[in-house]
Amino acid sequence: MKLKAFLFSFSVFAYTGFTAQNIQNNPGSNHGNRFEQLGTILPTPNIFRTASGAPGHGYWQNKADYDITAYLDEDKRNLKGSETITYYNNSPDDLDYIWLQLDENEQSTVKNAGFQFPSTLPAATSDQQLQVTELPEKDNGYGVNLEKVTDAAGNALKYTVNKTMMRIDLPKVLKKGEKLVFKIDWNYNIPNRIKMGGRGGYENFAEDGNDLYTMTQWYPRMCVYSDFHGWQNHQFTGRGEFALVFGNFKVSMNVPADHIVGGTGECKNYEQVLTSDQMARYRKAESAAEPIEIVTLDEAKKAEKNHSKQRKTWNFEANDVRDFAWTSSRKFVWDGMRVTIPENNNKVMAMSFYPKEAYNLYRKYSTKAVAHTIKTYSEFTIPYPYPVAQSVEAANGMEYPMICFNFGRTEKDGTYSEGIKNGMIGVVIHEVGHNFFPMIVNSDERQWSWMDEGLNTFTEYLTEEKWDNKFPSKRGPAWTIVDYMKLPKDQLEPIMSNSENIVQFGPNAYSKPATGLNILRETIMGRELFDKAFKTYAKRWAFKHPEPADFFRTMEDASGEDLDWFWRGWFYGTDPVDIAIDKVTVAVPDLNTPPREAKDIQYKVEKPIQNEFEDLSKIRNKEDKNITFSVDKDKDLQDFYYRYDRGQEKLDANKDYTIKTEAGIPLDAKDKEKFKNLTGYQIDFVNKGGLVMPIILEFTFEDGSKLYDKSSAQIWRQNEKKISKTYYFDKKIKSIQLDPMRETADIDTSNNLWSSSGAGGETSKFQLFKQKQGGGAVRGGANGKVNPMQAAGKKS
């Protein structure tokens, strides 16, 4: 308590002294722009998006409903589909064409987006790679084959395919408030996603001759038309993900009769496609607190051996979703349990589908991780609104509404390492978490990957922590981003970069934004302010299309924190954090200093300063007979030029006056005893990295005690390169550690420690005297002269 008292009592003195001294000693070291407002960097608020970050009173978004039938031909590995789309124009604009996405064209050698990467001759390559590059102009047979595009009456619609995008030219303008119904029939050859890459396709299990299908980006999908972008029809290259429209889905999938199907939304005909035993287990799972096998391991193994030639149709429905994905295989074990979301009392079916190759991991952890994820995300964002949440083991990671695909297989003997287990749990949490970002808070992934990957990775970190406090999270903690921040500038881009242009995609889109949000929560804003603002953003933009400015503005609006300096540095810049302790000056008080003597200061009351040159405005105003100057009408204002009020006394111009300063009061014996062990420490900091951050210090004293102190980042606002801070303690410091918990992502901690044992040099002294209550030395103005309006003295 004694230490804290000294620290508090001298804090004001230390601050004001630093400010004046800093400006006086460094007259040319003005600040840069790190603390300036983002201003025109952010888009101008309007009736659609407000300055507070909330949707405006004029906010709108279009809608698309889908009715789809699909036929999975396992022998030909072909998908045939037919869809009816009902598109609602809620915008204030008339539309004479619409845009759709044909994502499967990215797998085609002739229809893809054409975004190539530079290449060099490798020292070694595979036969598969040679087949890909042998004849690039030859059509490999993949991509969407459009069979028919018509209106609701069956009349052909004119359309143009530009790589992965399709424009339909409308026979008449689609006006505000109108809807358009049209139909598309198509098919495509399903790619081997293990060999060809991509998010959707099939994986073949050679040992048993079966396929596992992940059907994603599988149907022509509406592009987003918005107030901030118009049509988002940027090409799909395989990296930048999706901008999609909310709507309702009815989907029927005709598959081999021994396949098990999982998909976005709820299946409406389990009674027709499941055996009676499976249906009974599903009913039991609907109220179970632990996962129950709906399709057992033995049933899955048996189904692998017999490839049925019969067919079954699974019917699914999903409302208020932006996309639809599904999976199909006879290899699936399927388990499920009920989880209740406390915030809205939503009873959700958490389920997992996985082949026998993942059984020992997924049976233990997957569905429980699904349940944990939607419950935890509901605490930090909005209550999970959907009826199901599903995890599918498919040797990769990708997310869709209510269903996601993850990895996590065991060795052949069923064993697994801790690394595989933790990786599997982490990816399940991450992909299930995507239900919130961007499936509900529906950002534009094609433009801003960080708005879904970064925000989701941050919330994944919070969820991993609540799963296991010792969980080895790879992204989120500040220290984990240091290696990336150390890279040369030519290998870095700002977070605010288009998805296609990022070199270090993982750190840029996932790790750095997640780390930044964690630093905001733990170090800059505090958990209470941050959590309220983060939940506000999720609530405001649930089932809507937010942009970066909506997030930045909401975080400030809901917290009362000016964070423009943080967005500017962490999101728009590439500077790292590297703050160093440059020097520590130690001083003790001179307790026997003679008190300051009283003395007189002479000054003269001068006439008011007038400009040497009368500009054009002054001359014209003086010549204008219609102008009467206020000073000419007010005697007191006239006197102002030559007299100054000081209580009952008038000061005349051109006369000498005297200010008498008060004498210092010597320290008495009690004071000397109180301050005999006092030591002052001036700590000089240098900002070597460029990115400003709070100054967090751990003082360790010679008696073993510790004290922590934190100054906000605003301490750098008047000099972003170097600052000093002074402390007074009544015991000696052994060491000073900057950022002891590594919470600011400082890239060089070797310059963060000062130790008294290696300090060297001499201890200086500072004068200490008592100050009369309410008194103090008279200070001059900026020009060094005493201000007679403030000074206390007598007329000579």
From TrEMBL:
Q: Which InterPro entries match?
A: Peptidase_M1_aminopeptidases, Peptidase_M1_dom, Peptidase_M4/M1_CTD_sf
Q: Where is the Peptidase M1 membrane alanine aminopeptidase domain?
A: 370-570
Residues in coiled coil: none
Highest taxon above the source species = Bacteria
- Here the segments flagged for biased composition (Gly residues) are 773-783
Q: List the residue ranges of the region (Disordered).
A: 773-796
- Which Pfam families does the annotation name? Peptidase_M1 (PF01433)
Q: What protein name applies here?
A: M1 family metallopeptidase
